[in-house]
Design goal:
The structure is a single chain. By secondary structure, this protein is mainly alpha-helical. It is 35% helix and 5% strand. The protein contains 5 helices and 2 strands. It has a two-stranded parallel ribbon with strand order 1-2. α2 (49-66) runs parallel beside α3. The radius of gyration is 20 Å and the shape is globular.
């Protein structure tokens, strides 16, 4: 009985401490999705549709964990990053680095689509918010493609000091 009480007390302590957890930032190291092989008849080193789906799924998983609770995602604990825009991409809050290889850049784009999917009337406060989307006649102009959000992706070579490959 004492073991059961100690276990229950430990679970209670863990639950109460988890409620006060604050996430200030997150770093994700994601290489790339599936690509065409180096040898063969396909275009060399291109992100495949499966690779794009893999990257989108990774971005969606991080979205469910850190940005916006997804009621369909049952296997992810939700702890939002403090102060980050949840629905509208604010490029001043993100740093997305990718090597210059085309399949790496498109992998970063697909990942970011999952992290910040198209949402109508989602405007970053740092980019002018709703005011930037208002026409003089009062109508709202959304981004194309159903509210597609445009990430800033910085490409870096292996010799760039910001590259993780720089030595």
């Amino acid at each position: 009985m004492a073991l059961l009480a100690a276990t229950a007390l430990a679970l209670l302590a863990r639950t109460s401490s988890a409620q006060t957890e604050h996430v200030w930032s997150s770093v994700a190291w994601i290489l790339h999705g599936e690509r065409t092989p180096i040898w063969g008849s396909l275009p060399q080193l291109t992100l495949t549709p499966l690779g794009a789906q893999q990257m989108f799924a990774q971005g969606s998983l991080l979205r469910a964990r850190y940005l916006s609770r997804d009621p369909n995602e049952k296997n992810t604990e939700y702890t939002p990053i403090v102060g980050i825009e949840a629905n509208a991409i604010d490029n001043s809050q993100l740093t997305i680095l990718a090597p210059t290889d085309p399949y790496m850049v498109t992998s970063a784009q697909a990942f970011t689509q999952g992290l910040y999917p198209p949402i109508l009337q989602a405007f970053s406060n740092n980019s002018g918010g709703m005011e930037a989307a208002l026409n003089p006649n009062g109508s709202i102009v959304n981004y194309p493609l159903g509210g597609y959000q445009y990430p800033n992706i910085k490409t870096v070579s292996g010799l760039d000091y910001e590259s993780v490959w720089y030595v």
